[in-house]
Amino acid sequence: MASIGRLLVKDSVLLLCDMQEKFRPNIVHFTNILSNAARVLQACRILGIPPILTEQYPRGLGPTVPELGASDLKPHEKTQFSMLTEGVEKELKALGGPKKAILCGIEAQACIACTTYDLLERGMEVHVVADAVSSRSQTDRLFALSRLRQSGAYLTTTEAVLLQLVQDAKHPNFKEIQKLLAHPSPDTGLLSFFSSL
């Protein structure tokens, strides 16, 4: 049976890509993208989904921004665009080889794209959280999302991820997840993307 892209807590991993200080002034909708990624991270912590964090050339681009809430995570430093560095590969192996990746971060046309292609080629299911992914240019961002969709990644949203992971108001962690959904996700300029589909 063909995969329909159902997200499950089991066999999932959260990948947080390069949300660093030097990108702050240049990334489209950075504050709102970061807010959404932070909510996804909080939900994954509640549900026991392991997070993995990377930083692109931190000596030049600075550390991960504190608002993400990832100060307890040891970032994997990289210069390549794909997140699948040797250190990340080891961490994925230690986690038992997750089958599904939830992907947030920047930039859509570079590190998010290269990571997605690598994961897809390995047979992993990739869920790109479109309202938690951005670029310096809205054009690059929207075309990257379109290209990722063509390549077989599932495009989703912060709220959709949280609700798919619990699936039922009777879930033991539903009330905690519901608190994260108390306010709708902020606008991240995706309406123009979906009006072109």
Automatic annotation (TrEMBL):
Residues 12-159 form the Isochorismatase-like domain. Pfam families: Isochorismatase. Coiled coil: none annotated. Signal peptide: none annotated. It comes from the Eukaryota. InterPro entries: Isochorismatase-like_dom (IPR000868), Isochorismatase-like_sf (IPR036380), Isochorismatase_domain (IPR050993). PANTHER family: HYDROLASE, ISOCHORISMATASE DOMAIN-CONTAINING PROTEIN 2. Belongs to the isochorismatase family. This is Isochorismatase-like domain-containing protein. It comes from Anguilla anguilla.
